[in-house]
Design a protein that fits this description.
Blueprint (H helix, E strand, L loop, with lengths): L1 H4 L33 E13 L4 E13 L3 E5 L6 H8 L8 E10 L2 E2 L8 E5 L6 E5 L1 H11 L7 E4 L3 H4 L6 H12 L1 H9 L8 H14 L2 H15 L2 H12 L6 H11 L7 H30 L4 H17 L6 H7 L1 H17 L5 H6 L7 H13 L5 E5 L7 H18 L2 E5 L3 H7 L2 E6 L2 E7 H6 L4 H8 L39 H5 L5 E2 L5 E2 L12
Parallel strand pairs: 3-10, 3-11, 8-9, 9-10
Antiparallel strand pairs: 1-2, 1-4, 4-5, 6-7, 11-12, 12-14, 13-14
Helix pairs in contact: 5-14, 5-16, 6-11, 7-8, 7-9, 7-10, 8-9, 9-10, 9-14, 11-12, 14-16
Length: 541
């Protein structure tokens, strides 16, 4: 395998160094061909350090890659190579202190998410040690996080590696997923409530049809009739509510089903105080949206707009002040009831989208009541309910059993094609990459060492590290083949190796590898590698 991989190399490789690729089924063509799709995320020279008492951990050093719309990019490597830090650095979720993004660009919709990074902190080495004293300017950091709030959730969403730890145990699932709905889809929700037509002529016949379907016990007819009820009332979530009400009906409740549906319609018949509350919430959502637009424009142009920002902040302040009339608990509870109920059923719809069996029961439950697979689905629903352009999936299947893994991967593949979301899939499982990824980026010790289409990497790995990863996987067609491991261990990134960080473990290391860091070169067919064994043209990052 290595002899094939190094066929264009300037160095001969001994036969004994052969490493066979594992027998993993790879699609003949990527599942989503996105070479001509627009780039939605462009990461250039991303650098992240952790300033510890032992010294400065150089976790990421010049990481660069591009992600296109509708594409799945797999980021693979050993534990501790910087995969999760990459995702956290893109969204500026690296914990400070000790972590700090210190350089690079993250371009999203033409806006540099790291704009103003140089002004947020100063660094002073401490004499006689490897430590560095960091003086943080917290006003600048807060301003940066305020700007990024316009991106998180709505533009870039993230599935965390441990969903149980990422969710608040004291709030229900509907509260936590519903918060995303109210943050990023509030205008759509409110407009839907204000445009509802619960007394339209077609509502009563649709309810009668639904009651008849419930009596017949036909699930398909119930689903179709419930959808018609939602269309007649001009609120799709009410169709979802009617569906579960009819689905759970029993012979003892058939006679009351029409009355129950009519009673549920009351949430769409808004009182004057409720309409006033909705209008106020809409003004507040518009002000928030305008402020996000100002922040996005600042990051796009690379300069601040104090006047536009002051105007947007003043508009938000006025909307909040005008809403103070609803501050009393009793008044607010009654006025906000339509919003709460509509948000709940929007959450149920989101949970349906990730194929949760009992979405109403799950929405009412709490994180500790769910299994790992269910929590992972809830995290995916929470990430996608804001219709993000990019989904950062950090080890979404690591803690799950094989059956649930397959369901989650199929769900992600379906959502990518249905929603068009680009996915950065972080994992150490190459079988998962072969299953769902279009392209692969191999990371070692905080650096990207190889990128290519998934089929290209599995059939022709170029970097010795990628070859070692593939050689360590069992093959179905060679059950007696002895597995090989990569010599040595991951280096200490406080004192990383000079030159190529992989050279202490590389069987083909040369003197130049110890002195100079290799740059990515193009070896044809979109295959890029950072290794001195190859002499293709340099890739312009």
């Amino acid at each position: 395998m290595v002899a094939t991989a190094l066929s264009s190399s300037v160095v001969s490789v001994p036969e004994s160094a052969e490493a066979e690729s594992p027998h993993i089924e790879v699609p003949s063509e990527p599942s989503g061909t996105t070479t001509r799709a627009p780039v939605v995320l462009d990461v250039r020279g991303l650098t992240t350090y952790f300033y510890t008492y032992d010294g400065v951990v150089q976790a990421l050093e010049g990481v660069s890659f591009k992600l296109r719309r509708g594409e799945t990019l797999g980021l693979v490597g050993e534990t501790g190579c910087g995969k999760s830090v990459t995702a956290f650095s893109i969204t500026r979720l690296v914990q400070e202190p000790p972590g700090r993004v210190v350089g690079g660009k993250v371009l999203f919709r033409g806006a540099n998410l790291l704009w103003g990074l140089d002004e947020e902190a100063t660094f002073k080495p401490i004499k006689g040690s490897d430590r560095v004293k960091v003086r943080r300017r917290f006003r600048k950091i807060k301003a940066s996080h305020d700007r990024l709030a316009s991106i998180r959730g709505g533009g870039i969403a993230m599935i965390f590696q441990e969903p149980g730890q990422a969710m608040n145990p004291v709030f229900s699932i509907s509260d936590q997923v519903g918060e995303v709905v109210l943050l990023h889809r509030a205008i759509e929700l409110i407009d839907g409530l204000l445009a509802a037509t619960p007394d339209a002529p077609g509502v009563a016949p649709a309810i009668e049809q639904l009651v008849a379907a419930a009596r017949d016990g036909d699930p398909t007819a119930i689903t179709a009739a419930a959808a018609e009820v939602g269309r007649a009332a001009n609120v799709s979530s009410f169709g979802t509510e009617a569906h579960y009400l009819a689905k759970d009906a029993t012979p003892d409740t058939w006679d009351r089903l029409a009355q129950d549906l009519e009673h549920r319609l009351r949430r769409l018949r808004l009182a004057p105080s409720q309409r006033a509350y909705l209008r106020n919430r809409r003004h507040l959502a518009e002000a928030e949206q305008k402020l996000r637009g100002v922040y996005l424009e600042e990051m796009r142009r690379g300069e601040s707009h104090p006047r536009d920002r002051r105007r947007a902040l003043a508009a938000r302040r006025r909307a909040r002040i005008s809403g103070m009339r609803f501050i009393l608990p009793g008044i607010k509870r009654r006025a906000s009831k339509p919003v709460r109920e509509e948000t709940f059923w929007r959450v149920v719809q989101a949970l349906e989208g990730v194929r949760i069996a009992n979405p109403v029961q799950v929405a009412k439950g709490f994180p500790h009541e769910l299994s790992g697979g269910m929590l992972q689905r809830v995290m995916i629903a929470m990430a996608l309910v804001g219709n993000p352009d990019i989904l950062l999936a950090d080890e979404p299947t690591t803690a799950l059993d094989v059956t649930i893994q397959a369901q989650i991967l199929e769900l992600m593949r379906d959502l990518r094609h249905r929603v068009g979301t680009a996915i950065l899939l972080i994992t150490h499982d190459l079988a998962v990459i072969a299953e769902v990824a279009d392209r692969v980026a191999v990371m070692y010790a905080g650096q990207i060492v190889e990128t290519a289409a998934v089929k290209e990497v599995f059939s022709r790995p170029l970097h010795p590290y990628a070859q070692g990863l593939l050689a360590s996987i069992p093959r179905f067609d060679q059950p007696t083949k002895k597995l090989t491991s990569i010599y040595g261990s991951v280096p200490n990134l406080i004192h990383p190796p000079s030159g190529c960080r992989f050279h202490p473990r590389c069987p083909y290391a040369m003197p130049v590898c110890r002195e100079t860091r290799p740059t990515l070169t193009d070896e044809g067919n979109g295959h890029h590698v950072a290794c001195f064994l190859y002499n293709g043209p340099k890739v312009v990052e």
